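Q: Structure tokens for this one, please.
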Amino acid sequence: MGEIVHETNSEAETRKLGADISLTLKQGDMIALSGELGAGKSAFARGLIAHLLQDKTQEIASPTYTLCNVYQTEPAIAHFDLYRLSDPQELDELGLDEALETGCAIVEWPEKAFETMPLNAVHVEITELGETARKFRMSGNADLLGRIGRSIKIRDLLVSSGFGNAARSPLDGDASSRRYETLFVEGKPELLVMDAPETPDGPPVKDGKPYSKIAHLAENVSAFVAIDQVLRSKGFVAPNIPAMDMEAGILVVENLGSGKIIDEARQPIEERYQASAEFLADLHAHAFERQISLPDGISYTIPEYDHDALMIEVELLLEWYIQAFAREALKPEQRDGFFQIWTTLFRYLDSQQKTLVLRDFHSPNIIWRDQQTGTGRIGVIDFQDAVMGPCAYDVASLAQDARIDVSEMLETSLCEKYIAIRTQNDAKFDAEGFNESYAIMAAQRATKILGIFCRLNERDDKPQYLAHIPRMRDYLKRSLKHPVLGEYSNWLKTVIDL
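A: Here is the predicted structure, written as tokens:
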């Protein structure tokens, strides 16, 4: 993206543009504002800083005389006004470099110190089109400019869909590249923005395909729209989608609320976990077509959770977890043994029931709806990676929650609840086969996640995920008690101490 041109028609819109761009800022970012006196630099800067402050009572004073004001926001923002700068070398004394090391900066009149200005800024040239109308021409740092462009696209979608006055606030994301925002409509957090540009998960890793393609991870928002449509058509609670830009990868979705299935101490609320197991039993009793027609006229095919996908996931243990924790490097015969064991285990799964697997059915993605009844108490989100696969996977995802300690007693109770409902409603349901499938899928999932958490630490600089590794080890040990996993249990003992 070489340049962005955007127009505003009032001072309020100029402030809102600043607020929208504030959502994109990270440590080290700098915005340089140029324009004649009265062009709107201060209005833009105040809109940006006010949104970061989230405190309407705090005054945002102009730094015309102080030259710099610093606000302890997240990230911290330093506001420079260089109009009265007498010597460009004074910029060093004002601490611009230090500000960028710990936060970000917005600089008015950057031309006063152009020779000493950092090169990685986004330059914003403001020109007057009328009494209050302004044109913003932005260029410079490609990364920040790309983020700004997406923020403007989000506002454009909001305007075109009738939500132009909605206030936006960043929402904590997950381990993916997706971003989320809360939209406040008339002061109420009724909607969310999912900002998910189309992207593969890394470079090619096998047969010229990236990991995401082999593992059937969603690379664009069409998967979310399709699965959402299917779930709602079956009477399950998934977010309504009142606005979308499929090409840009931006969705405006219903906010299902903040009800959780865990308590404030992050312990499972047993009644809610049981209700979640009932939800899965109901979901898996339905038949699902793999081909789904989308609103834009294209179709989406739900991928099959095939052997290639299952295998590349468990392979993460070898590539990341074993590298970090193994007693010594794997021998070729040990690697071969690992693949042979899992190939055999995956063949067991071929005879088991295949259904819609949401794939991330655990506490962060389950919304508790206290005022509802039956399956209406469970709202689901973050299901864009859904596949057609063994029904046991989602039960394992719930009963071996990667972020919450689920006791072995509760895990057993959840499986028994699920089996009882399925058996009652379907005389052909194979309870014994399910138990075997559950052990395999629970072990597959724990194996994968141990690798993922190490990858998040090493590759993505997210060490907080290491805190969950002991829990996943314990879950894997539980699963290994099943006789079907005997060979895998023995293999693990030869290479690592669980």
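A few notes: The chain has a mean pLDDT of 93. The chain has 15 helices and 20 strands.
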